[in-house]
Amino acid sequence: MNEYVVEMKGIVKNFGQVQAVKHGEFTLKKGEIHSLIGENGAGKSTMMKLLYGMYPIDEGEIIVKGEPMGTITPKLAIEHGVGMVHQEFMLVNELTVLENIILGFEPKKGLTIDFDKARKEVKKYIEQYHMDVQLDKKVSQISVGEAQRVEIIKTLMRGADIIILDEPTAVLTPQEAERLFEILNNLKQDGKSLVFISHKLNEVMAISDRISVMRQGQYMGTVNKEETSPLDLTKRMIGREVFLNIDKAYSEAGDTILEVQDVWIPSQKETSKIRGMSLHVKTGEIVGVAGIDGNGQSELVEAITGLRKVEKGKILLCGKDITNQSPRKVRESGLSHIPEDRNTRGLNRAMTIEENLIAVRLDQPPFTRGIMMNKSGQDTYAKEMVEQFDIRPADYNLPTSSLSGGNAQKVVVAREVSLGNKLLVASQPTRGVDIGAIELIRNTLEKAKKAGAGVLLVSAELEEIISLSDRIVVIHEGKITGEMRADEANENNLGLLMMGGTDTGKDGEAAV
């Protein structure tokens, strides 16, 4: 009997002139967790989308449970027990969470949808896996982390025994990720077969039985977890060592560039309301904001950048009151913004890489000449940004929708940092990107600081906060529970403050 429930052999997939997968190989055993890793653009998500039937293969063979599949559609994949939790959410914003979960699989009572039955079925998963989702909220009203949990519940509900998870922890808190791992191991014990795509090598080492590596569209081999290490995996992925620990420059910070003065910011969720918060950022420093997702970080960033109204208090940029100004006015005052969700706030996915790179200053030289567009100036700039930020593929005329998540993020980072503004607000700048892109983005933020910018960094990654920041503020339920220098911080004292601690005691330990 064949030990594999999935076999992918000699896979080739092209998108126009771009060869996304040149030589793809992958196998999955019954009752195992098999991780698939590689840089953004390496082809790993494309491989799994081919298995799920989202794209047709150009060459090669896919066998599921011993059956050659030929042409696969998502419907056929689901019928064969294949489910996929996507990195980019497949949710309808104006439908409720419950409606999204049952969409296409609605239980019926006569000619109508039996919502009572659906609610009972979904609640079983919520209670069993402690997913904490609000069934009656519209998807447009929930946080990024909650939307990810909706996707996970939606896939689990369909009862797939082959489950593909594409960066499932990218938007989860450490606590949620730990619980997810418990779920995955339980599924594995029940005989489910799981594909785990992640850029976080510590997670890959924690959860995997086997690990396969792709580089630039090619299969680079498979190893058992016991036979490898994060350093070995990094070299297999990239072909060189990667250094995530920043050579941080310590210097005296300059003048105060951002002042948040006793602001009160509304939110639909009680735990996300900002209640009388004050903080500041100086030129030449990075101030990190740590906190469990959904405790007011998004609301704070949106208020600073003009995307959310402030009820009380003031926000000053370069001494100028920008409270409740439009996003355009805030930008004109000297602010750049890397948003937490690149697809809804950072990019127009239908536009080209070049168009996204120049979007915020399209009416300025060298992109215009008088009242006319200067195409040569646009092309020169786009070529320079693509090379400097290693955006792949390097064709700046491609639509941004053709890029992997990490390369799409590089477009946002390139555009915002190249503005040279006095304040850079970076919200989850490395969320869902590979280890090579993380290295590039972290070094870019450090360079912006050295060039004299003030950086407000919001990140769910405590290691990133500690590594990059000069000062750290911690927020819990819309209030600051502590502030410290980065050299005083560790995951223990920050974690306690994130849970609601209010003081620091001996050795920087948080008191609750």
Automatic annotation (TrEMBL):
Subcellular location: Cell membrane
GO CC terms: plasma membrane
ABC transporter domain boundaries: 6-241, 258-502
SUPFAM superfamilies to which the protein is assigned, alphabetical: P-loop containing nucleoside triphosphate hydrolases
CDD domains reported for this sequence: ABC_Carb_Monos_I, ABC_Carb_Monos_II
Membrane-related topology note: Peripheral membrane protein
InterPro entries, per database record: AAA+_ATPase (IPR003593), ABC_carbohydrate_import_ATPase (IPR050107), ABC_transporter-like_ATP-bd (IPR003439), ABC_transporter-like_CS (IPR017871), P-loop_NTPase (IPR027417)
Source superkingdom: Bacteria
Primary location group: membrane
Keyword Transport carried by entry: yes
Assigned keywords, A-Z: ATP-binding, Cell membrane, Membrane, Nucleotide-binding, Repeat, Translocase, Transport
Example GO molecular function: ATP binding
The name this protein goes by in its record: ABC transporter ATP-binding protein
Annotated source species: Clostridium fessum
Lineage: Bacteria, Bacillati, Bacillota, Clostridia, Eubacteriales
